[in-house]
Amino acid sequence: xxxxxxNSGPLSVPxxxxxxxxxTYSDRGSQSFFWYRQYSGKSPExxxxxxxxxxxxxxxxxxxxxxxxxYVSLLxxxxxxxxxxxxxxxxxxxxxxxxSFGAGTTVTVxx
Amino acid sequence: DAGVTQSPTHLIKTRGQQVTLRCSPKSGHDTVSWYQQAxxxxxxxxxxxxEEEERQRGNFPDRFSGHQFPNYSSExxxxxxLLGDSALYxxxxxxxxxxxxxxxxxxxxxxx
Lengths: 111, 112
Prior knowledge:
The structure holds two protein chains of two kinds. By secondary structure, chain A is mainly beta. Chain A has no helices and eleven strands. Chain A has strands at 4-6, 11-14, 19-25, 32-38, 45-50, 54-58, 61-66, 71-76, 85-92, 100-101, 105-110. In chain A, the strands form two sheets. In chain A, strands 2, 4, 5, 9, 10 and 11 form a six-stranded mixed sheet that branches. A five-stranded antiparallel sheet of chain A has the order 1-3-8-7-6, with no helix packed on it. In chain A, a hairpin with a 4-residue loop joins strand 7 and strand 8. The radius of gyration of chain A is 13 Å and the shape is globular. By secondary structure, chain B is mainly beta. In chain B, the strands form two sheets. In chain B, strands 2, 4, 5, 6, 9, 10 and 11 form a seven-stranded mixed sheet that branches. The termini of chain B are far apart. At the A-B interface, strand 4, strand 5, strand 9 and strand 10 of A face strand 5, strand 9 and strand 10 of B.
């Protein structure tokens, strides 16, 4: 079982819609969760992090964490063409300094 | 406020050669992690340096080594390059008191 799993996509959403990305992780003791956005040919950019159960909102982005279900999600509201990118979920394990990444979900926002 | 910087941007090497990649962390950060990202994959952790010591290492062979300098900058060295080492090499910097890691622009290594 992979440490971090994401739906590979691609996920295609119309402009103005909500994009919903999911991520599951295997280590129940994991404490820290991150979402990165990576444009084609560029490096990952940190867009959200969440450490506690529940929702965390930052502008058009909402991260949701459910540790009991070992599930973290990212919602992108009012999706824009500039949101078209690959979104990487990363998890920091209980005794780790490293981040473990999923393979990413590619999102395409159609105008 | 300078972000994470990496050099060079691109590099082409021949199988069997050695390469050194460099990274300067964000101002105020003291920890550097290195990741390898193959095409279509998420980044894979190579190792992390803090206080000039390797603090954690991923599942990479000893051909991959590193160093951290007193000014917190870091180098990644790869010996005896293989074709499979072709990838984007990412440096991420962080503070010792925070979990968030911020990536540099990366070095694209091609081994022929």
